[in-house]
Amino acid sequence: MFVIIGFVIVLASTLGGFSVAGGKPAVLIHLSEIIVIVGITIGLIVVAAPLPTLMATLKGVMGTFTGGGPSKDDFMDLLKMLYEMFTLGRRNGLIALDEHVEDPSQSAIISKYKSFVSDDEKTDFLVSNLRPLIDGKIKPDQISSLMNAEIKNKHDEGKGPIEVLHLAGDSLPGIGICAAVLGIIITMGVIDQGAGAVGYKVSAALTGTFLGVWLSYGFINPLAGRLHALQESQIVYYKILAEALGGFAKGLAPAMAIEVARRALPKDARPTATDLEAMLKELTSK
Predict the structure, then answer these.
(1) Can you tell me the distance from the alpha carbon of 81 to that of 136, in angstroms, rounded to the nearest whole number?
(2) Domain presence at residue 225
(3) Phi, psi of 34 (to 5 degrees)
(4) What does the pLDDT read at residue 286?
(5) CB of 227 within 8 A of CB of 154?
(6) CB of 84 within 8 A of CB of 109?
(7) Which long-range contacts link 2-10 to residues 24+ away (Cβ below 8 Å)?
(8) Total domain count for the chain?
């Protein structure tokens, strides 16, 4: 929503200021310039990025319009779910968690927290790191290094779409100049047709430069920044999960493992220690 609002502000400010100065917005639209700029931009993206990165970029861009990263409620659901899982594992042994990681969507605990169970990537992270502990295939003090390696991989993969958008954004001013030069070449061919024809062609050429700079700094680069922020918030989510699971695996009591995770939460999503204690007591009393 905020992305759309921001784009509307950019568009309204541009056209509004241009109109106040006496300009007519319609003169900014030249199909030939748009074809050159959009076509070259798409072409360089196709050349620069492998297909998986292109698909991830498209998915990431759509995500900037539809989501804002994990909310405070999402983090709270994560903490509550992990506390219930850890409490069960401490009370009945890790083997009691086997049925929950076997099919998270059917788990009496995990299925309650829709923000978690609806995301296959998050559930896979929990299952793939909890199952080796349940099966005894890994020592508790080794799980953190596995999770950190997986998180680093997610972070590196997330850079691809951001770099693609930055490439497009940084290239657009130059592409706009290319479009403008092509327009000037055409202008030279009509110079004998009088000032009116020349003025129209020069106007079209300058529109290419304007569109390149405008799209770069008003839309594409800000969109890359937004995508970067969303990617970082997702990484924080996995780090919180890893902190809690790593602490529990090393023998921390469930409440203490969750407290470790609480302290790693972003400030705007972090409950106070008192609020966390009250929330955990409420879960215990159910």
Answers:
(1) 22
(2) yes
(3) -65, -45
(4) 64
(5) no
(6) yes
(7) 2/68, 3/64, 3/65, 3/223, 3/226, 4/65, 6/222, 7/218, 7/219, 10/218, 10/219
(8) 1
| DSSP-derived 3-state class of residue 214 | helix
Of the pLDDT bands very low, low, confident and very high (cuts 50, 70, 90), residue 26 is: confident
Say whether 250 sits in a helix, a strand or coil: coil
Q: How many residues does the chain have?
A: 286
Contact criterion met (CB below 8 Å) for 133 and 248: no
Determine, yes or no, domain membership for 6: no
Do 25 and 18 touch, CB atoms closer than 8 A?
A: yes
Q: Are 77 and 116 in contact (CB under 8 A)?
A: yes
Confidence (pTM): 0.85
Question: What are the counts of helices (DSSP H) followed by strands (DSSP E) for the chain?
Answer: 12, 0
CA geometry: angle 166, 237, 143, nearest 5 deg = 115
| Planar angle of CA 237, 233, 273, nearest 5 degrees | 55
Share in percent of the chain as helix, strand, coil (round to 5): 85, 0, 15
SS3 206: helix
pLDDT digits (tens, 9 = 90+) for 167-192: 999 999 999 999 999 988 888 888 77
Cα–Cα–Cα angle for 283, 284, 286, rounded to 5 degrees: 70
Domain that includes residue 226, residue range: 31-286
Task: Name the packing angle between helices 195-215 and 143-188 (round to 10°).
Answer: 180
Interatomic CA distance for residues 146 and 128, integer angstroms: 10
Cα–Cα–Cα angle for 223, 24, 206, rounded to 5 degrees? 65
Per-residue tokens: 269: 């999503």
Q: Tokens representing 134? A: 């349940």
Say which range, 32-36, 103-107, 128-132, 195-199, has the weakest mean pLDDT: 195-199
Residue 13 lies in a domain: no
